[in-house]
């Protein structure tokens, strides 16, 4: 009677092994096609191993509580010839016959290598993958560049390549890891594309953004009306920039709840020491962020000169390190590029960045006159480190900024 | 006609006796009886008064050899089993190993240690002592794995002015055959790439080289190309060759037949980790005998030492990291 193997099936794309939770059958049990006979658990779900055909369990090789890799022989079924013919399953006998013919190399040649009569069964190679904190863990579902070996790290350092740069590579190594060979192949492929040297400014921005992106960042937004602000601005000399209004409102809102701008490190939240707020200035091939000091303690008119000087020097690339350090949050006006919405990324050393989009004329319902009236509206966007701030805190902050901007005289 | 590993050892001694008057053989039953393993068979007839039977005192044997070396001789001392060299430990590590450092006078003795396990030999006739002697400054420790190395390394060992611990594997004595002693004569201190590969490096020595090659053969059926490095001499250790191999493969498994605590494999792994951390794709691994005395029963013995099966398993784990 043919024997049909019960194998650990491929339970999912990234599943390399599964743990037996329950053996539902014993030797001698009759089973039906597609009967669930073994319950297994992967790192994703509990699933059943089913039979391929009718038969009688003749051997169980698996044990409960042990993890086996995909393809491991878990047990055997005695199956009639008719059933094999009916279902087209492959019997152990036919698998072994195929294997015998596919292996070249004569037995005599193998024999010549033998030391002396060693009982080959004395040491059985264990088919089970035993996950353990000791020795080598077997990775499952660890795809891509999640694990960087010292060798891979060294090669990447040689080439000045960071993890984010190789996110495009599908790994071919153990557990889907990206190997040095994968990296070299990818670089060879990229050699076929035109390329240029990145500027130091570009690399500095890339580095800052990469470091910042290691955190769980979230963005929330709301519209604000700009009309009162624009009206207020028209009569000022010198005229404060729109961004400066935002800077001032942001600082005042933060003084009400300074921990919102706190910086989480280990089990501590570091609080702002001074309400120094940066402003993002687009320059050639990058962005610089000069910091305006003590924004909460100076009026708008007092801030104008300091702000204009910083922005001017930023555009001329004349800022010092001092000018750009010590900020607790940043304001960015991407509306100047005609954009209405965005998800800005805070600096790596800051928890918050407040963005504003371009003002757009819109019909806004007026309850006073019971009609749609034209108004200038813009979207405020706040990106925050969700470890420190939640949606509620971020929303409250945005609402306060919005409210303060409706009272430009108080700024 | 073929030459066995033990033939090569005998022929090397014959050549040394013929060509160098300073060489003589000393050991228990090595003269008329030809040695417990017949490594000196017929040599006393060919060279009368150049092979001497020693009393059953390993301590006295090495003491005498050290004295003879001081007087300008180049003695080759056979320990009946490597295990018994522990009785001469004081003379080897305190006297012979330190003599040049203390006095400026070299001690060119060669101590032959029939080493390693064979089935049914048990705890006193199976041990591998290379790691212990390699620990001591002043000693050179050789572990030939091939017939030609057995021959040339004994010649080169005797030519050295330093005391040499020559570990010859009993298992290889008659099992390992070559058509002839070939010309592949590497200097002492240089390892050999026995089998080239690109997926993992096995560093082995003595009989374990053959077990590693068998394991590599098996894994080649699954498409794995395993590089096998034969250390040849465990001291000096050819770290350059090991690092160059690990640079190619990114993975290291050090295999030795000695006990697992410390020793040659630990040295391999520690040096590679120290100097070649940036070459590694996976934590370097070791495979040794088990941490118990060497068992007598052949089946227990086979489970005690590394085998092609256990090397394969260790390599599969290493390759899956």
- Class derived from helix and strand content of chain B: alpha/beta
The number of distinct helices of chain B, counting runs of at least 4 residues, comes to 12
* SS-derived structural category of chain A: alpha+beta
CATH H-level superfamily of the largest domain in chain B: Thiamin diphosphate (ThDP)-binding fold, Pyr/PP domains
> Strand percentage of chain A, roughly?
15-25%
Overall tally of structural domains of chain B: 2
| Number of self-contained structural domains of chain A | 3
Report on the architecture of this protein:
The complex is a heterodimer of chains A (411) and B (321). Chain A is α+β, with helices and mostly antiparallel strands and 411 residues long. Chain A folds into 3 domains: 3-122, Beta Barrel (OB fold (Dihydrolipoamide Acetyltransferase, E2P)); 150-190, Dihydrolipoamide Transferase (Irregular), CATH 4.10.320; 216-410, Chloramphenicol Acetyltransferase, CATH 3.30.559. Chain A is built from 10 helices and 19 strands. Chain A has helices at 81-87, 92-102, 107-112, 150-159, 180-190, 200-212, 227-234, 242-256, 300-315, 391-405; strands at residues 3-7, 17-23, 30-31, 36-41, 46-50, 55-60, 67-69, 73-78, 217-225, 263-265, 268-270, 277-279, 281-283, 286-288, 291-292, 329-333, 352-356, 360-366, 371-385. In chain A, the strands form 5 sheets. In chain A, strands 9, 12, 15, 16, 17, 18 and 19 form a 7-stranded mixed β-sheet that branches. A 4-stranded antiparallel β-sheet of chain A has the order 1-8-6-3, with no helix packed on it. The longest helix of chain A has 16 residues, at 300-315. Chain A is elongated. Chain B has 2 domains: 3-178, Thiamin diphosphate (ThDP)-binding fold, Pyr/PP domains (Rossmann fold, 3-Layer(aba) Sandwich), CATH 3.40.50.970; 192-319, 3-Layer(aba) Sandwich (Rossmann fold). Chain B is globular. By secondary structure, chain B is of the alpha/beta class. Chain B contains 12 helices and 14 strands. Chain B starts with a strand and ends with a helix. Chain B has helices at 5-19, 43-46, 58-70, 89-103, 130-134, 147-159, 172-175, 207-220, 239-249, 263-276, 298-304, 308-319; strands spanning 3-4, 23-27, 51-53, 74-78, 110-115, 140-142, 164-169, 177-178, 192-195, 200-204, 226-230, 233-235, 252-255, 285-287. The chains are: A alpha+beta (411), B alpha/beta (321). The interface between A and B is medium-sized, with 28 and 32 residues.
